[in-house]
């Protein structure tokens, strides 16, 4: 075969897959696309052929397993027309070659394997396509009956295409092989792509893709999440933070509340992540919104991912604190995305974040909350590692990130389902405490990798004037436990300005 140059690629027609493959499949090679029924093989194969048509290439779909009507139904569900390329099905072989053939060719299971291969070769000679999909190898196994004969015929098929300017995808649903994957078949093909469909205890099925091998290409290894939507597969390449570095100034991003900014030495730095942790109702989201509003006022594009709360409720709560986000939403500066916890995978969420950063230029990201993120992916593995990679990516891009992490309980000892405090650059802790017969809030900074920070515990109030931070609670002891002990007299606590007693 002719030498394949780096740019001599057959694009797959799926943006995410082409990124994983570093530009597409090397042309004039034989590839294996394998996966269980329902994993998306036919859809991906059709997208591969349609991309060839867009490039002005002839395309051929050879089907032993599905009829043209079935393929047409799949294509129609995505708004496609299969009349764009040639389809060869063995049930209509007489229409292709004439009525002189014996009637035994009307059904693939009645054909000898050698006859099947010969019919395929004749059709390829007639159409002269640049892209071919052969669907599927399971029927060839059934026809061959003997594994050795089957492998010889697959090898003969490879040799037949080797002298032609044709990129071939062999589809295998892995149902005719007791051991699942065919290792010998893997060795014959230039590349192997595996699709998987995972059924969770609750929510939508998860699908993922893996490139098992691709000779001569530095592809992105590992699993990549994908979904099947109207219009085809959407593949989300695994995020590798180190490949996305961008130059930026590590400047301070203030909130507009001087006392709050002083806790972090002026505010979070560009490219850092801040974890807001504390019990429900302690003000975590409101503090994040204060920083978010200040960024919007500066004209910076920002994005909020809302796992827990309805967007309408969030906006209404913000208005009660004199934060009018509606004008920034209308101007396009702010985007708030409601995330359905049962319908999203880690890969898709990371892809959404990348889209906001790279396409919209978002400079601040708020994730509300990590508990919602965890609930969205209860059966996923390595969530901490995936979140760490996402935060590293945002850091490389100079994005300021706020992570809201609710803790279990209201007073006393607290716990969390997702301990990510060591990953964040700064940690702001909020607590309830009781004084003067009232429930009050306290705020403190536990760490700040971006610079100096106060080590004091201050009172926090959130009312119609917004976020206010008071003096250090120097005459209390044990505030972080939720059961403080008063050690002085006439401690100056903050007044309520909400208009309520």
How many DSSP helices? 15
Which CATH architecture of the largest domain? 3-Layer(aba) Sandwich
CA radius of gyration is 30 Å
Using the alpha-carbon principal axes, give the shape. elongated
Determine the structural class based on helices, strands and strand pairing. alpha/beta
By oligomeric state, this entry counts as single chain
CATH topology of the largest domain: Rossmann fold
Query: Count of DSSP E strands?
Result: 22
The major β-sheet equals: 9 strands, mixed
Spatial separation of the terminal alpha carbons: 85 Å
User: Poorly predicted ranges (pLDDT <50, ≥5 residues)?
Assistant: 1-6, 93-110
- What is the assigned CATH homologous superfamily of the largest domain? P-loop containing nucleotide triphosphate hydrolases
- How much strand content do the residues show? 25-35%
Domain KaiC: 8-249, 251-483
Keywords: Hydrolase, Kinase, Phosphoprotein, Repeat, Transferase
Enzyme class: transferase
Region (Disordered): 482-501
């Amino acid at each position: 075969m002719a030498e394949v140059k780096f740019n001599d690629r057959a694009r797959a027609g799926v943006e995410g897959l082409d990124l994983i493959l570093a530009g597409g499949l090397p042309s004039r090679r034989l590839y294996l696309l394998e996966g269980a029924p329902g994993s998306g093989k036919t859809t991906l194969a059709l997208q591969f052929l349609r991309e060839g048509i867009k490039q002005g290439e002839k395309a051929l779909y050879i089907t032993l397993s599905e009829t043209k009507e079935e393929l047409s139904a799949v294509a129609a569900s995505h708004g496609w027309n299969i009349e764009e390329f040639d389809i060869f099905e063995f049930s209509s072989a007489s229409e292709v070659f004439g009525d002189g053939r014996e009637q035994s060719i009307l059904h693939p299971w009645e054909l000898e394997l050698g006859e099947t291969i010969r019919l395929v070769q004749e059709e390829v000679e007639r159409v002269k396509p640049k892209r071919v999909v052969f669907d599927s190898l399971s029927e060839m196994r059934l026809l061959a009956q003997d594994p050795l004969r089957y492998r010889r015929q697959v090898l003969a098929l490879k040799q037949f295409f080797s002298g032609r300017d044709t990129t071939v995808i062999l589809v295998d649903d892995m149902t005719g092989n007791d051991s699942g994957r065919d290792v010998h078949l893997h060795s014959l093909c230039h590349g192997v792509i595996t699709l998987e469909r995972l059924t969770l205890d609750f929510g939508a099925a998860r699908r993922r893709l893996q490139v098992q091998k691709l000779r001569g290409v530095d592809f992105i290894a590992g699993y990549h999440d994908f979904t099947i939507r109207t219009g085809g597969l959407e593949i989300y390449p695994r995020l590798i933070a180190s490949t996305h570095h961008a130059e930026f100034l590590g400047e301070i991003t203030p909130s507009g509340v001087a006392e709050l900014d002083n806790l972090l030495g002026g505010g979070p730095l560009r490219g850092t992540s801040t974890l807001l942790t504390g019990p429900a109702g302690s003000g975590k989201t409101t503090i994040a919104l204060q920083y978010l509003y200040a960024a919007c006022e500066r004209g910076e594009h920002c994005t909020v991912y809302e796992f827990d709360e309805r967007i309408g409720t969030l906006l209404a709560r913000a208005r009660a604190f004199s934060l009018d986000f509606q004008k920034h939403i209308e101007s396009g500066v702010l985007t708030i995305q409601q995330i359905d916890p049962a319908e999203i995978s880690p890969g898709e969420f990371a892809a959404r974040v990348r889209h906001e950063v790279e396409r919209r230029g978002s400079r601040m990201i708020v994730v509300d909350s990590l508990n919602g993120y965890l609930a969205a992916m209860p059966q996923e593995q390595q969530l901490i590692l995936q979140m760490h990679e996402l935060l590293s990516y945002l850091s490389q891009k100079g994005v300021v990130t706020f992570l809201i992490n609710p803790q279990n309980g209201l007073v006393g000892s607290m716990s969390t389902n997702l301990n990510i405090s060591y990953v964040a650059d700064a940690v702001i802790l909020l607590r309830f405490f009781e004084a003067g017969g009232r429930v009050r809030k306290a705020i403190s900074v536990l760490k700040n990798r971006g610079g100096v920070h106060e080590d004091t515990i201050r009172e926090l109030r959130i009312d119609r004037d917004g976020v206010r931070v008071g003096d250090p609670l120097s005459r209390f002891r044990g505030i972080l436990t939720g059961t403080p002990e008063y050690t002085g007299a006439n401690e100056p606590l903050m007044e309520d300005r909400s208009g309520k007693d």
